[in-house]
Fold this sequence. Notes:
Elements: E1 29-30, E2 32-35, E3 44-52, E4 54-55, E5 58-59, E6 67-76, E7 79-86, H1 90-98, H2 118-124, E8 138-142, E9 145-149, E10 154-158, E11 165-170, E12 185-186, E13 192-199, E14 205-212, E15 227-233, E16 247-248, E17 252-257, E18 260-262, H3 264-274, E19 282-284, E20 290-296, E21 302-309, E22 312-323, E23 326-335, H4 346-349, H5 353-361, E24 366-374, E25 395-398, E26 403-407, E27 409-412, E28 417-423, H6 426-429, E29 436-443, E30 446-454, E31 460-463, E32 474-477, E33 487-494, E34 503-509, E35 515-521, E36 530-534
Amino acid sequence: MFLYTCRIEHPAGGYKKIFETVEELAEPLPAVVTGVIPPWLKGSLLRLGPGLFEIGEEQFYHLFDGQALFHKFDFKNGAVTYHRKFVRTDAYVRAMTENRIVITEFGTFAFPDPCKNIFSRFFSYFKGVEVTDNALVNVYPVGEDFYACTETNYITKVNPETLETISKVDLCNYVSINGVTAHPHIENDGTVYNIGNCFGKGCSIAYNLVKIPPTQKDKVDPLERMKVVVQFPCSDRFKPSYVHSFGMSENYFVLVETPVKINLLKFLSAWSIRGANYMDCFESNETMGTWFHIATKKTGEYQNIKFRTSAINVFHHINTYEEDGFLVVDLCTWKGFEFVYNYLYLANLKENWDEVKKNAMMAPQPEVRRYVLPLDVDRVEQGKNLICLPYTTATATMWADGTVWLEPEVLFSGPRQAFEFPQINYKKFSMKNYTYAYALGLNHFIPDRICKLNVKTKETWVWQEPDSYPSEPIFVASPDAVDEDDGVILTVVVTPGAGQRPAYLLILNAKDLTEVARAEVETIIPVTFHGMYKP
């Protein structure tokens, strides 16, 4: 075991290399393997992230703007190959054709074509914005197909074998949704759940939770059977909260509505007239705190209980499960109402190390938290803690106005040290009382370690090497697994220093994060966000 808070410094600034443009590969590269690849590891690690950070003379400004690059590490007979291709989205194809940024991204505005005359440029401002399909965030299966995604209404069907782009899909053609998260929940039978905002009753904003069934015997595309199963109300009629993920237990859905808001009026007016980007339309509600919403999974009934807590940012749920009449919700949080994405502009992330640290000192601070929600709040005594689970210090207190105020148990906290991009043994322990979570450790927003947390004892393990920048850890269970943590962790590590190969796939023992093997490649690999192991 290592102390999570022991800190490595990065004065050489090698992390800057993970935010630089690379070229796609014409064919897979063979990797040089050190150690022994487990013989049962025979699938592919699929990853998504930005790979093109400028087009022509125009720069992308935000971490979530670069054009989507699809990565794959293949395991076969103890050997490993690496391949990558850009996803042929409309945003990418048109940008490459015109040699400029054509579609506005998260933090970068696409200026009108300078070759157009002043009248056509003027009217282009009033046609509304083209929503990006830049699928740089994640990849997941729907039925027998695989889709790369961002957080808009567009997902992109891809071939996980060849990395070729197949087709663009507009989810608005199937359900009422303005966009969905890049973090669906997928049950073992293949059922997919996801959430996004929509226009609800009386033209007010709501959040629709959608269900996509697994492939049926008739082989109809499961998207054709996609439907809304729950509609959550919004705390503000015209300002939905930014929702990056959601919780799901065996019988409930959980939506955490944070004070980070999207101002729709600003969104529409700013984009139509003066040309803004997505980031310009976020604002913080400094007084609302954070609202927890729950709904029953079987009936889709919204539970009108006023669960409230202090202001936090939430991007990633770790796990959600029920026990003895309580709903346990484990989250990676950032304290306060200021939007964390304000600190993820590329100019900030590519600063020298002392400046990176100084910027992070001003940002909301990360904390892993456990909230516990009582499912029965009828006939309860005001002012009394309603939580009686013996293993948590989290509390829930009924106030006179019917509010149930939640105070969390802190599972991990380290100054400027985030436990983020969490993963668990999802197939066996999603929606269940579990013990272990794995995560990417962010040191002042720079990824420099892989972490394991025992959520019961708060014990931590860390893998870390100097000037090495890993990615989200993916847990793969061993075929004969008995314990929850029997298996390996897969992560892509960038090592830009001289005298070594610039990147490798790292395989760690999931029990203690000791190295099992690494597969080095002769090419730099830029930052990746999320992905999956495909057996």
